[in-house]
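Why does residue order matter? Because the sequence determines the fold. Keep that principle in mind as you read this record.
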Amino acid sequence: LKPNPEKVTLRGPKSVIDSISRVVAEANVSGLSENADIEGKLILYDMNNNVIDQTLLANNLGKDGVSVRVTLNQIRSVPVKPDTSMITAASGCKVSAVNVEPREVRVTGEEEHLDKLDKIEIPAEDLAISDLSERTERMVDISAYLPDGVTLADENAGSVVITILIEQPGVKNYEVSTSSITVNNLADDLELVYGAVVDLEIQVRGPAEILKVFTIAKKVSIDLKDYHTPGTYLVPVTVELPEGCELVDSEEVEIILEKKTEETMVKQRVTITNPTGLHLRPAGIFCNTASNFKCKVTFEYDNTIANAKSVLSVLGACIKKGDEIELICEGEDEDEALREMVAAIEGGLGE
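Structure:
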């Protein structure tokens, strides 16, 4: 945004002139889809951020007033690609995978700059980690790797987490989504929501020929026979393993048990319309909106129910533009919560 003119001369009582702290050219840019010059409104503020009455003031803007040149930047999602060539495992171990979360970030800039950017590369020297024998995470600020003319669309979303998975001799790593865990003996008057963890990393030790063909699908479960009251619990995870194999470490998962209520829940199906789906900033707005209400807010997607107040649960659902979810609100302010959640989604979640 650039005002025209960039300076203004004001005349009037000294007491009023001396009270001016800043001068702003206000412009309404809603609905713009291309660069434009639009009419602006001159507003004066004092040091307490109060608007100053201009009745006794004169200026040199004349009949043309002030205009604002609006240059619109494009916004795009760009994949993050780490150079893993300098990541090495300890003797006898191997790097099984290097994951990036989030996989894409939203950047903004003029079209000519964005057209030259197909990925954001993290240099190998910034990921020079050696002699690894266990899972390792490193947080990386990617803003330093953006080319001139390109910035982050959300300045608070510039960090990505690099997760390096290490396989020890005779060990294989498996990632298991909490949505695929079989739940046994859940009390009829309780309902379950998983905590912040979306995926479990399970390490299995055994003969290489068995691990090569072993699949963990539908073999992970939890037993809730000893959990009868609402609360948050760490529950042991059971894995059905072939003979000769064992877990490297025992596994637990956080669950939240809540009492089923007699109140009538409200539901509504809604389609995600914003360009990046429930990812990064939109996911944050989605969760913040849900957290404004006392009632329980969940959503169902792909036959899985997730906690709408947990950013990790929302990101883990991998919901894209065009996907349909069912919002479920249950509690004392459920009707208002449902209205606000639907409005936030239909409003584009900040995009």
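Helices lie at 14-19, 111-114, 208-213, 281-291, 311-316, 334-346.
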